[in-house]
Write a structure and sequence with these properties.
This protein has 333 residues and is mainly alpha-helical. The chain contains 14 helices and five strands. The structure holds tryptophan.
């Protein structure tokens, strides 16, 4: 056994990835793959169905789009195993065994699930599938014996549940095959949407997507929330909460230049159009090569990556499944 870190990340394929994903996770995945880790990236189509079961077409389409996003930002399928959740049957079986180790009230108390339930339209009847997706996520993580799961803060309760299941499983079945995992919080704050109100998200329609075209990108930058009290160029303006500066902080390479601009803006004498034009240029320069690379990627190439990755993932998940069955003691041959 090597002592490499095993890193697992996942995305629900419900839409193309945006700049929030880029600063929050895509960039760090590229770094992780280049620093001698065993990296797995799962496209969680089964989990996506848990609140999109009435729209499977959307999920299927976005499996391919999300994978295109990965490749176009520089995730290397030679270094990362990229796979589709539904192509790994062992995950589903492991999920069923874990279901016995979690109480319904424990699932109902999960803060992530609670917050999601408030946003979603289950009316007053949440499905069993949705309530239990955290158990399936525990199966995803443990099947690959992931040592590290890089996540945003909203995912912490899911990692906690995973480790609870690991401890329970090992205790009840007198084994140590399952390993606890470490959540690695990304050190980047969640990116705010262009409206300045909430985090960038597809459903709120306030995100800049990795594959937005030039014109769309420019329009989004120019419609960004700045300081509503900064009416004339000569007025002193506020930098905190000003989305253009938040994005310049996140994406402009020259920190000194950004600090200079902030000082000028605060004093008065710097117009919104000037900072928007700089941000537009910064983002156009950053996204142009990504957009170009995306345009060259064929559907066949993506399917090939997903098939190869899923084959490899199946071997590992099946090994864990075998150990899980052994530990429980249901082996019949
Ligand atoms: N719940 C994650 C999200 O909404 C997606 C996901 C599914 C995941 N399985 C995972 C993340 C395993 C990390 C590890 O983004």
């Amino acid at each position: 056994m090597s002592n490499k870190n095993i890193v697992l990340t996942g995305d629900r394929p419900t839409g193309c990835l945006h700049l929030g994903h880029y600063v929050g996770s895509l960039k760090s995945r590229v770094e992780l793959q280049n620093s001698n880790n065993d990296c797995y990236i799962m496209i969680a189509d089964i989990q996506a169905l848990s609140d999109n079961f009435d729209n499977p077409e959307k999920v299927k389409l976005n499996v391919v789009e999300v994978c295109k996003d990965y490749i176009s930002v520089g995730i290397d399928p030679e270094k990362c195993t990229i796979f589709i959740q539904s192509l790994i049957p062992a995950l589903t079986e492991i999920t069923m065994y874990y279901m016995n180790l979690v109480s319904v009230s424990r699932l109902e108390r999960n803060p992530t699930v609670k917050a999601e339930l408030q946003q979603k339209k289950f009316a007053d009847s949440v499905t069993a599938g949705f309530l239990c997706y955290p158990v399936s996520q525990a199966a995803d993580i443990t099947a690959f014996k992931a040592t590290t799961v890089p996540v945003g803060e909203d995912q912490l309760p899911l990692i906690e549940l995973t480790n609870e299941i690991v401890r329970r499983f090992n205790r009840i079945y007198h084994t140590d095959i399952l390993k606890e995992t470490d959540a690695r919080l990304s050190n980047v704050q969640r990116l705010v949407g262009i409206d300045g109100k909430a985090k960038a998200s597809k459903s709120l329609n306030n995100a800049i997507f990795m594959n937005d075209d030039k014109e769309t990108l420019k329009n989004k930058v120019y419609s960004m929330y700045t300081d509503p009290k900064h009416l004339k160029v000569s007025d002193p303006g506020q930098v905190e909460g000003n989305v253009v500066f938040t994005y310049l902080d996140a994406f402009h390479n020259n920190k000194e230049e950004v600090e200079d601009l902030k000082n000028k803006y605060r004093k008065g004498g710097l117009g919104d159009t000037t900072i928007k034009s700089l941000l537009n240029q910064t983002l156009q320069d950053m996204l142009a090569p990504i957009r170009e690379k995306r345009a060259e990627i064929s559907h066949e190439y993506i399917m090939d990556i997903l098939q190869t990755g899923s084959k490899k993932a199946n071997i590992i998940a099946n090994e864990t499944l075998q150990q899980v069955r052994d530990a429980i003691g249901i082996v019949y041959y």
